[in-house]
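Exercise: predict the fold of this chain.
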Amino acid sequence: MADTANLDELRELYTFFPLEGVTTNPTILNHSGLKLSVAIEGIQELVGNGMVHVQMISADSEDMVREAKKYRSYFDFGDNFYAKIPVTANGFRAMRILKDAGVNVTATAIFTQQQALVAMKAGADFVAPYVSRLDNISSHGIEVVSDIVQNIFEYGLHGKVLAASFKTVDQIYRTSMAGAHSATISTELLYQLIKHPMTDIGVKQFEIDAEGLYDIDF
């Protein structure tokens, strides 16, 4: 998934990148310079039936529930809407209520395997561990992802890992090899993810070798 609310970036990405959806949060919205109503409406037009994950900003569990339901109806979302709920006591309470109401939940701001386990037991569809932020405090983000994936298999849980917070392509690679089901990635890293200098060299050589040989018009 693309971790951005920049509509120009998303418009270009959706011309070639097989994205499953878009994730947002207040920081991302701030960087885009767009209000929530404008950003999400624009994102909806681009993703089609893809997923849209929207951060709740309320602190109280009842307010989180009201906020999530409001966004879901305001933007006329179907099952592709995911309410991003932080793993706090009020957040866990809100997750249960929202799941009972049929609203998809992404548990966010996860830094430990235990937080993810509790969130999935509370009904979260996705759990989002912050890989780079864990690495920054020497807490080994990839290992946390691996532990969460192991819990899902060991306990037969229905949640999936949506890994977040990356600074390098190597972190994304190691996260995928650790078994993460999905990842939300900045536009810059999405471009780096599919690029390799040897690919550029190979394509350029094809162009040179094809000179004068391809004689069929198209």
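Check your answer against the key: The beta strands are 2-3, 21-23, 51-55, 81-86, 104-110, 126-129, 160-163, 182-183.
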